[in-house]
Amino acid sequence: NAGVIQTPRHKVTGKGQEATLWCEPISGHSAVFWYRQTIVQGLEFLTYFRNQAPIDDSGMPKERFSAQMPNQSHSTLKIQSTQPQDSAVYLCASSLTGGAQNTLYFGAGTRLSVL
Amino acid sequence: AQKVTQTQTSISVVEKTTVTMDCVYETRDSSYFLFWYKQTASGEIVFLIRQDSYKKENATVGHYSLNFQKPKSSIGLIITATQIEDSAVYFCAMREGDTNAYKVIFGKGTHLHVLP
Question: Please, which residues 59-98 of chain A have a Cβ atom closer than 8 Å to chain B?
């Protein structure tokens, strides 16, 4: 079991460029979560998929951010026209099912730096 | 709306002692699940322990235990016989169970320093 895999580990973009972050959940897990971690805001919920369907995107900034899960083996978080305030560690997590009792398994994160 | 609050930003203890980290939560759901996660210096986040809202018994796993006080909406994490390697950031989290949304909300974390 390789755990949740996130790529790249580090990404540096210039202001205004696009960034795409990838997540491969644990095989057999049907729920995928995206979080953003900063010193000031802590772990912020962004969005959540269950069985590839978007369930809750209430944490996603309305502009520039989008997430997809085209198949059960990967999810992407895309940030268009990146801004310095987007700099953060973006974490992906998966859980066995969408059940509320299930624990999350986190990936190592992608550190995004917007210059 | 659900909310998780950890007021202790940082705690320092001497190894082999017991430490308690506080967490209070807000929810309108009658069913919910409370979790504690640990983030090590490498950035890795791992699950430690869970408390189901309908259970009166405090959960215990190894040297981690919980102090669940439902009337106070409080879920404290107790670490006994602390070790240097317990130094990390500890996050309290909640997942509501009544609705179908199931998003997980985290507190801002408590940084534990275990000193020799």
Answer: 59, 89, 91, 93, 98
Residues of A within 8 A of B37 (CB-CB) are 104, 106
**Structure confidence by residue, pLDDT tens digits, A1-39:** 689 999 999 999 999 999 999 999 999 999 999 999 999
Given B35, B43, B100, which is nearest A109 (Cβ)? B43
A22 at the B interface (CB within 8 A)?
A: no
User: Using the beta-carbon criterion (under 8 Å), do B43 and A108 form an inter-chain contact?
Assistant: yes
Average predicted confidence (pLDDT) for chain B? 94
- Residue B88, pLDDT > 70, answer yes
Spatial separation of the C-alpha atoms in residues A104 and A92, rounded to whole Å: 9
A92-106: pLDDT as tens digits? 999 988 677 789 999
- The verdict on A43 touching B (C-beta cutoff 8 Å) is yes
For tokens 């960034």, the residue is A19
